[in-house]
Write a sequence for this structure.
């Protein structure tokens, strides 16, 4: 995978360069002190997860020859106190991020196919990455 290079521009805006000459601008919304010139970091994270879910389900359906026409993934990120998180077992202090999602499929699919695609949606590589231990280190 190629590097992603982020360079600050003005105020809170950043230029993100990746791949072969692809560029996007990130920013914060007005109420957070930005100029709303692009997605904020959490929106990018949700977009990455939603894209991965959609691609994983699409590739699986394609390999099976199923008539999947469209995948829609709706996501929301909320931050809650760890002490208020009923499902949390590892984190007991500070905050926990809860990503909620709804995945829907369009096409002439059977109930069994829809159920299997929901299972596959939980197996996208980014979902696995986000739910495993992550180590962030300096490039050498």
């Amino acid at each position: 995978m190629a590097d992603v290079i982020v360079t600050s521009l003005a105020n809170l805006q950043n230029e993100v360069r990746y791949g072969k000459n692809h560029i996007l601008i990130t920013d914060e919304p007005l109420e957070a002190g930005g100029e709303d010139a692009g997605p904020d970091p959490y929106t990018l994270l949700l977009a990455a997860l939603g894209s991965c879910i959609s691609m994983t389900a699409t590739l699986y359906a394609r390999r099976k020859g199923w008539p999947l026409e469209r995948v829609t993934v709706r996501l929301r990120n909320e931050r809650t106190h760890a002490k208020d998180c009923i499902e949390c077992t590892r984190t007991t202090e500070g905050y926990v991020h809860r990503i909620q999602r709804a995945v829907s499929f369009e096409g002439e699919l059977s109930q069994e196919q829809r159920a299997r695609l929901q299972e596959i949606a939980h197996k996208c590589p980014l979902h696995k990455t986000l739910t495993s231990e992550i180590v962030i280190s300096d490039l050498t």
